[in-house]
Amino acid sequence: MPTDLVAALDIGGTKIAGALVDDRGRILLRTQRPTPAREDGDTVMRAVEDVLGELAAGEPWAQVRAVGIGSAGPVDASAGTVSPVNVPGWRGYPLVERVRAATHGLPVELVGDGVAMTAAEHWQGAARGHDNALCMVVSTGVGGGLVLGGSLHPGPTGNAGHIGHICVDLDGDPCPCGARGCVERIASGPNIARRALDAGWRPGPDGDTSAAAVAMAARAGDPVATASFDRAAQALAAGIAATATLVEIDIAVIGGGVAMAGDVLFAPLRRALRDYAALSFVRQLTVAPALMGTDAGLVGAAAAALRAFPDPAVPRLRSAVNG
């Protein structure tokens, strides 16, 4: 039986996933519950406790030495709190304290979900072997994280690298974050679809108006659908180039549902990068699709915990959760 295990939680607006992960990134046990996102905060927490309880029911739990959490944000790792936009019952919610109590005192590391994805891609995925990387999730929103000097760089609150809210259009549409012209306001899946619909694109007989449907239309040559993805790619390129200019990353890894559009997104993105990443020290910047898929949140949360608590001598508590 592996002797160096951490528990990992991946918390989002639709599901709360949990796993036991070893120090080679292997998932040994997993479970999940739907997120009761419209309920009060304690009801959401009970779903988290149910996930932890199922993980704790097996013999491997005796070897768990820490818990890693990747959560939808905003998060505040310094305070141990979370305020996910899509979980209204959690505002400044003391998640670290509650998870520590539920696991009878195990150390807990909290990062945003974009940072968790970055940790996973750097450890096991497309950013492996790169000392300076930006990893991004482009989906319902746009998030990200940074690897600098070979190490994960979550920042004081766990939100560093949140590229979705870099402004790339000074006079652009208002963003729910309070700014204007953010990358997310242009490149997220819902905004790709909104822009295509506003410009006259119409869905097929199935009525699907998702970004995936826009991507399918673009792949078939629809000029309006293609233009919407080109605009998203331009916004992503501007944000990536700005990040590269600031901190000299050499790879940008892109995952999430929008990245599944493939060349509909990546081809115009690479073209746009040639315009935006113009300085000599960022011209060699490469863009790659993410490799970790739906396991990125769990593996990344585990990686963050292993990074934060590297000493195998941390006491291992053998009590079951809530037992």
Automatic annotation (TrEMBL):
Where is the secretion signal located? none
Keywords, in A-Z order: Kinase, Transferase
The cross-references to InterPro entries, in alphabetical order and at most eight, read: ATPase_NBD (IPR043129), ROK (IPR000600), ROK_cs (IPR049874)
Q: Which domain of life is it from?
A: Bacteria
Its Enzyme Commission number(s) read 2.7.1.2
A molecular function annotated in GO for this UniProt entry is:
glucokinase activity
Claim: Cell division is one of the keywords in the record:
no
The entry sums up its family as follows: Belongs to the ROK (NagC/XylR) family.
The name this protein carries in UniProt is Glucokinase
